[in-house]
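B., you asked whether I could sanity-check this one before it goes into the benchmark set. Here's the sequence:
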Amino acid sequence: MRVAIFGGTGFVGGYLVDALVSAGVKPIVMVRPGSEHKMRHPERCQLVSGDISDNAAMLQMLDGADAVIYNIGILREFPKRGITFDQLHEKAAIRVIDAARWTGVNRFILMGANGAKADGTPYQMTKYRAEQYLMKTRLD
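And here's what the prediction gave me:
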């Protein structure tokens, strides 16, 4: 099984990579330039250089993948740098969901470490909206 992980260099992502590698899976992990040092088991993963705004890197991640784990999550926003809950938790997740459907990936896990609620914090609301979008697809 080939699993593409978006957000594989973060706190939770490292544990996902550990679990997949110990299960004999070679995860496909997107790594932002300059974040290579955060990667666990780089020799046992397929690394794709880029960030979530890079459509070519996103499609390279999905090429041949059987499943996607969207684990990108931020705790603070930096709007001047384009780092917002709306951009990363919702809009980027929806782009990856649509790309997964287009490329034939059938399984999709949307991770939200701090929950997903319609009337919660900005973190939770954006995760909730992405979750609602995902649930309307035919992805497993």
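One thing to flag: The first strand starts at residue 3 and ends at 6. Otherwise nothing jumped out at me.
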